Amino acid sequence: MLNAINGLHHVTSMAKDANVNNAFFTRVLGLRRVKKTVNFDAPDVYHLYYGDETGAPGTVMTYFPFPDIAAGQPGTGEVGTTLFAVPRGSLEFWQRHLADAGVEGLKAEQVFGEERLHFAGPDGDMFALVETEGDERAPWTGAGIDADHAIRGFHGATMRLADPAATAELLGFMGYEATDTGDGVTRFHVANGGNGADIIELEAMPNIAPARLGAGSVHHIAFSVDNRERQLEVRKALADTGYQVTPVIDRDYFWAIYFRTPGGVLFEVATNEPGFDRDEDTANLGEVLKLPIQHQHLRAELEAHLEPIRD
Ligand code: ZN
Question: Using CA atoms, how far apart are residues 307 and 295, in angstroms rounded to an integer?
Fold first, then answer.
């Protein structure tokens, strides 16, 4: 069993409209945009990152906005609900705040003893706020949501799988322990070095068709490791187990490896180093368009093509 995984690093999804996406995450959810860059593999599309003040691993929701993308169709083989941690007693505030902002899909429920408020993102993205106890992470309050209520980062994520068995086994290998089960859902907790974003839930949906990914779908889910050395250990262990893992890819703010899991979800393992202050001051994160070296010659073209983000 691996002991290098700390929990989630980031979750990356697809959106239709960059400005709608930006307004939702910064103004409605009160996260900080910590990076404005492009999809390194398709630089004519933005890659927007939202998180806490520094974009700490375990807080970072990221988006590829594709203006022409069709809506995603929920199904199996995908991340279902992305869970954000909020303080105990704050869901009353959020219920009102989200309703006032016209957010759809509000539904409160209790899952494994936790109070959750489900809501939909602008593209039907499935989210829930979860009241948690003793989360030491300092929230970003620069967007006007005070510390008594503000999002701390991820709590975890759920995955919708036709058959969760192989993914459950993989999570065990990655250092997660099954802690609870009920209603076709098994809950896992990362045993070692949790960063707060330490929950994964697998939902068995044997008679549901595979998802068609599109706007509002999660593209991949990334797990955190401290550094490149840990990442190489994880990569070797996964490859030795038979997973087809990509080489290490430099994403400027972290190093990444990717592999497709048996249930269909694309996993990434990302390093906590070097972080989002690598190419701009913490005070000014996310303000200007940052481009990786390989795309810097495209700056004029990209700035003419990408719709400006209105803050
Ligand atoms: Zn990623």
Answer: 18
